[in-house]
Design brief:
mainly alpha, globular
Length: about 160
């Protein structure tokens, strides 16, 4: 009888731990099949490979906001934003949030001139009950901004 190999962590692999890795692939396939995005909206959701570096300073500059404002938009601290801008690696969740912010910026740039985007983000908007878009996003309601973009893009609103 041969000796059993034990992983470095001292735990034997279970059936569920061996199959867990394939679950992410199944979720992606289901999401792709659901067809949630319209063809028009796909331009706002480019594929960003996992290895591609996200330049947080570039995202912030293109959005036209301060570190404090980007912190409010992303839900991370000013210290984290400064660290990322200095080259510190983003966690997976942080990377996803910054990518989402960049996608929102790209969509807004289609309807708001890039040079005015920062000011627009700081200006109270009647469509958001007098709140600024930064406040709306900071409260976790970015879907309201996306809804506005879709309505303007489809010609329902201006």
């Amino acid at each position: 009888m041969s000796p059993t190999k034990v992983p470095a962590n001292g735990r034997a692999a279970t059936a569920s731990s061996r199959t867990r890795g394939s679950e992410g692939g199944r979720r992606k396939k289901r999401a792709a099949k659901s067809g949630i995005l319209t063809t028009k909206m796909r331009k706002y959701f480019p594929n960003l490979p996992a290895g591609r570096a996200i330049q947080v300073l570039g995202v912030r500059n293109r959005l036209g906001v301060s570190q404090e404002e980007l912190a409010r938009i992303t839900g991370y601290s000013v210290r984290a934003i400064a660290g990322w801008e200095a080259g510190k690696k983003l966690s997976g969740a942080a990377r996803q949030k910054v990518v989402e912010t960049e996608r929102l910026r790209a969509a807004l740039a289609e309807i708001v001139p890039a040079s005015e985007l920062g000011q627009w983000m700081r200006t109270p908007n009647p469509a958001f009950e007098g709140q600024t878009p930064i406040q709306v996003i900071g409260r976790g309601e970015a879907d309201r901004i996306w809804r506005m973009i879709i309505q303007i893009d489809s010609g329902v609103a201006n």
